[in-house]
Amino acid sequence: xxxxxxxxxxxxxxxxAGLVLCACATARVKEYKAVAxxxxxxxxxxxxxxxxxxxxxxxESTGTYxxxxxxxxxxxxxxxxEEIKFAGKYFIEGSSILDGKLYLLTWTTKVAFxxxxxxxxxxxxxxxxxxxWGLTTDGESLIASDGSATLYFMDGSFSVKKRLTxxxxxxxxxxxxxxxxxxxxIWANVYTTDLILVIDPESGNVEATVDAAGLxxxxxxxxxxxxxxxxxxxxxxxxxxxxxxxxPRLYEISLVSK
Length: 258
Fold this sequence. Notes:
Blueprint: H1 6-25, E1 30-41, E2 48-54, E3 57-62, E4 69-73, E5 80-85, E6 92-98, E7 101-106, E8 111-116, E9 122-127, E10 135-137, E11 142-145, E12 150-154, E13 160-165, E14 167-168, E15 171-172, E16 176-182, E17 185-190, E18 195-199, E19 206-211, E20 228-234, E21 239-244, E22 249-257
Parallel strand pairs: 1-19
Antiparallel strand pairs: 1-22, 2-3, 3-4, 4-5, 6-7, 7-8, 8-9, 10-11, 11-12, 12-13, 14-15, 16-17, 17-18, 18-19, 20-21, 21-22
């Protein structure tokens, strides 16, 4: 039996690793179209920054200086049933609930807020070193975006435990914004576009895209209608909802392969 030298073994292992990396980089990204199943009213003055369900209740954080809020929302009417308003210097961004606490990011003031999730009573303010954009949770960590291609996995005191670079076909994907954790994947909308990325939380690879172009028909566009930004998953019903900044509608959607 011939002897294989260590150098040859190393070369074979390197080649094998290269083939694996190549296969991963060229894996086909699935493409879906978001199709409206049902529509609901949405506050056209709500500059949506964060959108999520918790225990069957819809919550929304809205931005703009002087108009930032966090609210419990009635799904059927789109009206807030309970609301927190913020001082004019704060531009509220992403929001999420983890372990009984509500977490809220701000855009440029480098602070984050914590409230009691049940009572919506203020608890504390934390220093936050980055711009706040999107926020979600996998049930163990808070996951945040800052407009770059990086996602930050944090504990309840906003200490970063892991950084993940999001790539599609090997290329970093910038402008990651509103986030939602759905069935073990991170959904992220790409700011200023109608594109949503479905991301593997371990590798950072984009496994699928969701095209939401035309979801809000042009007849419903007004002077203040802005971009897609709002992804919510109701774990109790398994339904997914999308809306946008100052959109007059919120949509339950289904996915159709392109």
